[in-house]
Amino acid sequence: MAGRVEGKVAFITGAARGQGRAHAVRLAEEGADIIAVDICEQIESNPYPLATEKDLAATAASIERLGRRVVSVKADVRDRARLEAALSDGVAALGRLDVVVANAGILPMAMGDPQPSDFVDAVDVDLVGVMNTIAVAIPHLGDHSSIVITGSTAAMLPNTTDNPALGPGSAGYGWAKKTLIGYSEQLAQHLAGRFIRVNVIHPTNVDTHLLHNDGLYSMFRPDLAAPARDDVEPAFIQFHAMPIPYVDPVDISNAVLFFASDESRYVTGQQLRVDAGALLKAPGGPVGG
């Protein structure tokens, strides 16, 4: 069924690359116009390169090739005033706001010199950045709108983000993503009277830069001096019940599309795992009985 979000406008953070770009393109394919923002700068505690202005321009070009309108703005989700200005510019150009995808995230990791500030950086982007995104969006949202938040299956699992070997940044990432569960459920209750839905998608490993970097590779294969993708994929597979190393960004985007569309008009406060059975496989994971 084509045009599942026809005529809607979606505000997406972290849109220059990875999951954010996939979400923007997938929603545009189904008829949405896009307000795309990204920091387009490096955060030093993050061990892999973040997106650039060139990446954000490539996202915008992909949307335009689909015949949809796009407003792309360099903005840091940690800066509420800048984020508010970027969104206001987008709404002024595109006329409305129907969907918020609070996706921007980082995973600072110990790379020989962990710092307490790594925890702060992770929380500032992964939790405060989400709250800033939603705070600036709510005044623009009409009734029957949708808010979609990116969580993390890893943050639900023991000995993953809270592994001391990964340092304060990973702990901050996990704490932020866990905190989003309660935050989203509270927000869903308070917006329900306006039929504004709030849902969280918790991905497993996704084929993006956040997964594919030397820091994570070394954590999965500490027995190797310089592990490469081929070395870590067998370990990634062991993480899941389904025998795959990771999912594609579009697998998450398809869930975003469902929550953005009117098909989910009465679905709110949900925590949806797109995790290839990772939590089911984990010791102590949910088991029906």
From TrEMBL:
Q: Which Pfam families match?
A: adh_short_C2 (PF13561)
Q: Which InterPro entries match?
A: NAD(P)-bd_dom_sf, SDR_fam, SDR_subfam_1
What UniProt keywords are attached to this protein's entry? NAD, Oxidoreductase
UniProt keyword Cell membrane, yes or no: no
Gene3D superfamilies tied to this protein: NAD(P)-binding Rossmann-like Domain (3.40.50.720)
Gene Ontology molecular function terms on file:
oxidoreductase activity, acting on the CH-OH group of donors, NAD or NADP as acceptor
Which protein family is named in the record?
A: Belongs to the short-chain dehydrogenases/reductases (SDR) family.
Tell me the NCBIfam families matching this sequence. Answer: PRK12826.1-3, SDR_subfam_1
Please give the name of this protein: SDR family mycofactocin-dependent oxidoreductase
Source species? Gordonia humi
